[in-house]
Amino acid sequence: MTATVQSSTTTSPVVRKSGGSTTRHTVVRAWASRTPKWQRFQPVRIQPNESTTTSVESKQKEVFAYQRQYSHVYHHRLMALRDRCWKQLAVNDGTKTNNNNNSTTNLDDSNPMTAVRVNRILELKEDQLSRVVGTLVKETINSDEELLHPKATCRPSDQLYLEDESGRVILSLDGTRTGVVDHQVYQFCTGVVIGVEGMVDDKGVLHVQYLATPAPLPPPTALAVHNTAGILEPSQPAGYEPHLLLVSSLECGDPQVSSLPRELLVGYLQGQFTDEASKVARVIVAGSGPSATDPLGGLKELDMFAGIQVSGGSNGGVGMQIPLDILPSSKDPTTANWPQRPLHSSLLPLSNKDNQRMVMSTPNPYEAIHGTKSVMGTDGLNVRDLQKHILKPNPNDKDEAPVPLTELEALEQTLRWAHLCPTGPDHLGMVPSNDPMEMGKTTPHVYFCGNCEEGFATKLLGYNEDEDDDDVKSKTRLVCIPKFSETGEAVLVNLRTLDVELIRFKVEEEEEENSN
C-alpha cells in the first residue's frame, strides 16, 4: 500500500511514504487574524403572546414563534436589496433616477418615452412605462404537467408574480431582455428581489421590457482589523503567505469511508511530509464532519481529529497547532432550520477542553474576516436546493429542453442575487426572524460551498468592466469544495492573491503480480 499526497500545481507528488516511515518537519505557521462576522447568523428568539400554542419553548421561557407567517422575512429582504435594484435599473439602459424618486429620465433622445418610477406595485397604471422593484413569486399552475427536467421542479406553465407589501402583479417575460439574452420563467425562483421595467395591459399583466438583479457590489478594498492581518510575523518563513485550507465531508465514523486519507491530511497539516504545510493559517471544515450513519462515533472521531491531531496532540508543539473552524450541515446534530446553530461544545469535549481558541464551532452559513479578506460560505445545501428550482437554457442548443445549473453556476447565482439562500423560506426551512442571509451591504472576497457532488470547481468573479483586471481587491473567489470522503481532495486559498490550489490525499493499493 502506498500513500500519496499530491498538489495540482506540481508535476509530481509532493511526498510519498511507504511502509509507514515518515519524516517530521518543524512547522512554523503562517498567520492571519480571524475576526468572526457570523453573529448575524445567530437568530434572536421571539417572545410571542401568552396565548400562543404553536411555538417551541426553551428553558428560559423564550421561544421561536413559528406560528408567524414569513412575510416579514421577505419584507426585510426587499428593503435590504431594493436600492441596489434601482441602481441597476438605471445602469442597464443609460438612465438616471431623479432626486424626487418619482421618475427616471432616459438619456437616449431617440426614445421619447420616460419610465415612471413606481414605489408600490399597487400604484402601477395601465399603458404607462413604469419601473418597480419587488420580490419574485413563482407558482405552479398545472401540477400534472411534465417537468422540464427530471432534476428540477420547473414546469412549462409556471407563472411569475412580482410582489411587495402592497400587492402583486403578474409578469410576462415575452419581451424581456437584458443585453442580448432573453430570460425565461424557469430561470427564477420564489424569493429573488429584482427590478423590472415594463407596461401593464388592460388585463393587469406587466409585460417586462427590462429586468435587473441587484447591482454588483465589489468587496471592500480594505478591512479594519485589530492586528496586522495577512502579513507574516518576522519569525515566520518569508515564502509562505497565509492560506485557508477548505475541506468538507470528512464523514468521520463512517465504516464505509477509509480513515487513511484523513490521517494523511493530519500528517500534512502537522508537517510530517513537507514544510509547505506552514502556509496553512486555518482549516475550515465546511459541513459533514461527523458521519450520519454513526453520529456518536462520528462526533468522537471528529473530536479527536480537531482536538488532538489537527491541533498538535501530545506529539506536537505550538508550531504544529492550527486553528480550526467547524460548520454544521443538514445531517449534523444541530438545528435544522437556517441559519443553523453551531455544534454544541459538549459534542466536542476534547476540542473545547484545552484548545478553545484553536477549535471553533461556527454557525452555517459562515462569515469571518481572515487577514484583510472577508470569507463567506455554507455547507452547500443552499446551492443544491437552488439547483432543484431553477434551470438554464441548453448551452448547446437553445431550442432544446433547459438543463440544471452546475454547482459553481448556482453558487455564482446566489452571489448575483445577493442572497445566500434565495429559496428560503419557501423551500428551505428558515428561522422565523429577520433575513440575516441577504448580502445587501457586503460581498465576500472568498465565497465557498461544501459537499459538492460534482467535484472541485472555482472561478474568479470580477466586478469591474474589465474582468481581466489583476486587482483581486475587486474580485470574489468562488470555490466548490469536493467531498473529501469520496475524492480525498482539499482546497488551499491564498489570502493575499486569492489563488487556489487543489491537494489530493490518495491511498493506492499495490497489486501483487503473480510470478507464474
Give a verbal description of the structure.
The strands form 4 sheets. An 8-stranded mixed β-sheet has the order 2-1-24-23-14-15-16-17. Strands 3-18-19-20-22-21 form a 6-stranded mixed β-sheet. It has a 5-stranded mixed beta barrel with strand order 9-10-11-13-12. The chain has 7 helices and 24 strands. It has 516 residues and is α/β, with parallel strands linked by helices. It has helices spanning 71-92, 260-269, 295-310, 349-354, 381-387, 407-416, 484-487; strands at residues 2-7, 15-18, 34-36, 56-57, 63-64, 95-97, 103-106, 115-117, 129-139, 159-163, 168-172, 193-200, 205-212, 243-247, 280-286, 324-327, 359-361, 366-370, 373-378, 446-452, 457-462, 475-482, 489-494, 500-508. The longest helix is centred in the N-terminal third of the chain and has 22 residues, at 71-92.
Give the gist of this structure.
Belongs to the DNA polymerase delta/II small subunit family. The protein has 7 helices and 24 strands.
Largest sheet: 8 strands, mixed
> So how many helices?
7
Please state roughly what percent of the residues sit in beta strands, choosing from under 5%, 5-15%, 15-25%, 25-35%, 35-45% or over 45%. Answer: 25-35%
**For the residues shown, what is the average pLDDT?**
80
Radius of gyration: 25 Å
Helix content: 10-25%
Low-pLDDT sequence parts: 9-25, 46-62, 96-110, 177-181, 224-238, 313-319, 510-516
- Overall outline: elongated
Count of distinct strands: 24
Distance between the termini: 22 Å
